[in-house]
Amino acid sequence: MRIFVQSVLGLQIWAIALGLTVFTTRAQERVDLNLVLAIDCSYSVDANEFDLQIHGTAAAFTNPLIINAITSGKYGKIAISVIQWSNSHNQIVTIPWTIVSSQIDAYKLAVAIKSQTRKTAEGATSISSAIEKAAIMLLTAPYSADRLAIDIAADGENNAGKRVETVRDQTITRGITINGLSILNEVSYLNYYFQNRVIGGKGAFVQIANSYRDFGDAIRKKLLREIFGNGIS
């Protein structure tokens, strides 16, 4: 058994290195979208700003428009995972892959998102490392999806880890779309930075939040666009 497990893990690592998608036996269950939500926990994000991200994201999944978007797809379900990130050594999965196919599922996910505490150490802003982590999660996700997307929120530029443009380019060649939510509380031109250096893939887009207080409205609009497939399908 140990040899078998080691062989499977070795195959997954080899496939990831080649940019191939690896699924477990649960991959027979298809969903419309596999989506990783990446929450900024870098030095520039204080406790109140973290809470606004968490509560805004949770509230979005209780919105009837979001629930309708999820259940109106080809398969009527999506898979969501959430990570918190800061520097190049801190990317933590706080919500593992979770299928949402009903109002009950959406409300349960909202409770889980709202209940999470800050897990990552505060640090620099490594958008590139967050994208790398999210990409590996998508390539090894337990569900087979027609669309793969990373939803990365940040209030600053990449200042640690690899060049974000390099990671972006590597990621989109694997059929993954990177969308951005730029929070303009500190860097007024961040949406242009995201547009030029961070987002990529089929129909990629940037959603703007003028401040953290606007985050809830911004993430709701962003999720609607991603789930319906406007811009990435």
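(the above was protein one; protein two follows)
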Amino acid sequence: MMRALSLALVLAALAGPAFAQHEHEAPTPPKVNWSFDGPFGTFDRPSLQRGYQIYKEVCSNCHSMKLVYYRDLRAIGLSEEQVKAVAAEATISGGTDDSGEPVDRPGLPSDHFKSPFANDKAARAANGGALPPDLSLIIKARADGANYVHGLLNGYEDPPEGVTVPDGQYYNKYFPGHFLAMPPPLRDDQVEYTDGTKATLEQMSQDVVTFLSWASNPEMEARKRMGIKAVLFLCLLTGLTYTVKKKIWKDVH
């Protein structure tokens, strides 16, 4: 009897941390019906442009996209003149002049997106020690990336009863551990879309995730088109091979 009681106490002690850990596990974010999902999926151009607007007006204040060039914006539907105008809004370090003094110049389509901070130390200093991640590949860098980032943007809420949020952090039900330093980045009517779309939190979340998905995987549409062509070619080749086989072996019983 005593051995059984001791075993029960040991199991209870071991189970305690496991239950506590389970309570802090983030639930799986809800799945969204993305236009780019599936073998025939494509990026919604209007959504891409709205998503870029969200990045430019909101996210770029803290997050860089160092792997994306301004010229890449042609792929989301911007004209050559629009791309030049967007690039020219950025001030880029242009080396030094004849006297060795640093000079700046307007951005060019061949430039990378300008980062909001000069280096990681400056980024940490401006964000209470937290380093905002670069968003160029954020969708690829997270499991179930599009749904995860969408859930994160919509997952801010008051903490459950009995949970204390540390100073300088925020509670998010879809973030592992639930506490993160980034305040809620989006809210209803935060921007005014140029195409007149209602800027709800859900709409902005879907648009910016679509843009970040494109940035992480800009060749997706071309790859899918090539894959479809390859499958059709293999189907045709299979049919021709079967026809030839039947012809060659038709007299063999």
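Reviewer note on protein two: The beta strands are 91-96, 102-106, 170-171, 179-180.
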